[in-house]
Amino acid sequence: MNLIKLKKKPPKLEENLVCPLSGLPLGLRPESGGGAALVTPDRRIFYPRESGVFNLIPDPLPSPLADKAALWRQLQENAMLGYEMAPFLNLFATGGPVARYLAAFMDLRGLVLEVGCGPQRGVPAYIPSENPVVYWGLDPLLGEQPRDFPFLLGMAELLPFGSAVFDSLVYCSCLDHMIDYAQALRQAARVLKPGGCINLALDLIEKSEPRPAWLDKIRRGASQTLRATLRKGPLWALNYALAMARLNTPHGAADPFHWRFPTLSGVKNTLQEAGFKGFVEQQRGGLIFLRAYKD
Question: Does 140 sit behind a cis peptide bond, omega within 30 degrees of 0 on the bond before it?
């Protein structure tokens, strides 16, 4: 992993935020009870602080994202339940060989933003602990609070940051949760500095054709049941599997947690169109690690 230390004072999260709808800078507005909200200069749009965290998810969502807002929110609720019941099933956040493989593969430098960092309190296991980089996280799930790192509620499709802010970006098994992953990757190109690196872990093995939904359900269910059995025993794993089976799968979604699984070729084509080059990929089982650099 290529690590480059920041030579100046680390920036503050709040000082780099913009309205995800208008792109206007945001300022603090005192609220009753001693709280604060972020507001645009014209005072027309504001974003509240929830449980000590600023929520930069617009409500309502703009079109065309609004057309799938209910579906997206249902998927987020399902995901949170899954995390709460079995946090150890998150292979990336809890460490182990998968997290080590990703850590060794990524090219991290300077100011790092992870989009879809998950609900866990601590810094993910694939981010170096010796503090050679500055790490920020963004996720639509509030998760555990307070976090051990600067954290923001937000959407990948509507990143609330100015242009060319970050040196590195991380997207770890999250594109399949997004309403419009192509828009999210275009946003990634906008907030990344020229020469900066985007690092992705993709839960797929297909090069160009999407996997059938029924095959995904079988593969995913079998893998999680096996890991849950080894960790908690067969009875606990059975109860977990039954709880997951009862979750509502929104119409059009691949399963109760994922909107759809993008193909590797689709992701690479979108990144290339957004101005990325220098692709490097590595397959680890059913995962593909991918990185590219912004022109």
Answer: no
Count the domains in the chain: 1
Per the rule left: phi > 0, alpha: psi between -120 and 50, beta: everything else, 272 is alpha
Query: Cis link prior to 30 (omega < 30° from 0)?
Result: no
Helix axes 213-232, 234-245, angle to 10 degrees: 150
The residue behind tokens 């849950």 is: 228
Model confidence pLDDT, tens digit, residues 239-255: 778 888 888 888 888 88
Residue 225: pLDDT above 90?
Answer: no
CA dihedral for 168, 68, 89, 54, sign (positive or negative): positive
What local confidence, expressed as pLDDT, does residue 294 receive?
Answer: 98
Tell me whether residue 172 is in a domain.
Answer: yes
pLDDT of residue 269: 97
- Pair of tokens at residue 182: 């192509």
Residue 114 inside a domain? The answer is: yes
pLDDT in tens, 34-84: 678 999 999 889 999 988 999 999 999 999 999 999 999 999 999 888 888
Does residue 221 form part of some domain? no
Work out the number of other CB atoms within 10 angstroms of the CB of residue 12. 9
CATH number at residue 31: 3.40.50.150
Q: Are 204 and 263 in contact (CB under 8 A)?
A: yes
Contacts of 239 (CB under 8 A, 6+ apart): none
Domain hosting residue 153, numbered range? 13-208+255-294
- As a three-state string, the secondary structure of 162-194 is CCCCEEEEEEECCHHHCCCHHHHHHHHHHHEEE
Query: Would 245 be classed as within a structural domain?
Result: no
